[in-house]
């Protein structure tokens, strides 16, 4: 089982790697749920760590609905990210009626080149998660980050399992995140048939997004999940 951890600073990224995590999701604006980080931060981090770095592409926190002006910014950010050593991007878009915005998604996929693509938790705001999975399976998406529509993924294991069945059949990885911590991760991985988990505040001191990475928590999580690693 693979562990991805959110980083918002260079120090966090270095601490995440040294603690044994497998991948970084790089964001800024953690209070807003994650926004596109500066190109300076991206370049510094991808040149300072060896583990893969997935970069959030989200131009604002108003919603996951993007107009043509937003799309221009999104595509320009992706072009610049492609010039770095980033492993991939994290992106999601919805229409005004909370369906997957396929037109925007197609343009992002066209722009991303060889970058890996994670469709993020915008899916959790969509009107029907199974419907959304059946749409996303048709696109060049490597993984989907989801809490299965709940504030905490531990509360939606049954729906998560249904989503994962679709993902597995279509060679997509379901990345389970939101609400995971060192007290519930063992029970979660016992019940949920997923191969990757995503942590944010759950590996920070006091489970607080605005505090530093707690290396011991990452080590505990890795120890718990290693028996599931393929």
From TrEMBL:
For this record, the Gene Ontology CC terms, alphabetical, are: cytoplasm
Which taxonomic lineage is given here? Bacteria, Bacillati, Mycoplasmatota, Mollicutes, Acholeplasmatales
What is this protein's name?
PF03932 family protein CutC
Localisation: Cytoplasm
Q: Which UniProt keywords apply?
A: Cytoplasm
Q: Which residues form the signal peptide?
A: none
InterPro entries recorded: CutC-like, CutC-like_dom_sf
Q: What gene name is listed for this protein?
A: cutC
Which family does the entry's similarity section mention? Belongs to the CutC family.
Q: Which HAMAP family match?
A: CutC
An annotated Gene Ontology molecular function: copper ion binding
């Amino acid at each position: 089982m693979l562990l991805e951890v959110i980083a918002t600073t260079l120090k966090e990224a270095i601490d995440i790697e040294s603690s044994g995590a497998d991948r970084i999701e790089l964001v800024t604006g953690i209070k807003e749920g994650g926004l596109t980080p500066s190109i300076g931060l991206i370049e510094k981090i991808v040149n300072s760590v060896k583990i893969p770095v997935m970069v959030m592409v989200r131009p604002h926190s108003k919603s996951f609905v993007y107009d043509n002006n937003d799309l221009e910014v999104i595509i320009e950010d992706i072009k610049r990210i492609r010039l770095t050593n980033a492993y991939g991007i994290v992106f999601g878009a919805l229409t005004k009626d909370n369906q997957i915005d396929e037109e925007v998604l197609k343009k992002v996929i066209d722009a991303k080149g060889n970058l890996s693509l994670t469709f993020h938790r915008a899916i959790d705001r969509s009107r029907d998660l199974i419907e959304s999975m059946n749409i996303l399976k048709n696109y060049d998406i490597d993984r989907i980050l989801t809490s299965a529509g709940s504030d905490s993924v531990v509360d939606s294991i049954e729906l998560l399992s249904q989503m994962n069945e679709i993902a597995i059949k279509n060679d997509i990885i379901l990345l389970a995140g939101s609400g995971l911590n060192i007290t519930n991760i063992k029970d979660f991985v016992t019940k949920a048939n997923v191969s990757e988990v995503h942590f944010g505040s759950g590996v920070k001191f006091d489970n607080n997004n605005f505090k530093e990475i707690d290396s011991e928590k990452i080590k505990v999580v890795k120890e718990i999940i290693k028996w599931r690693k393929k």
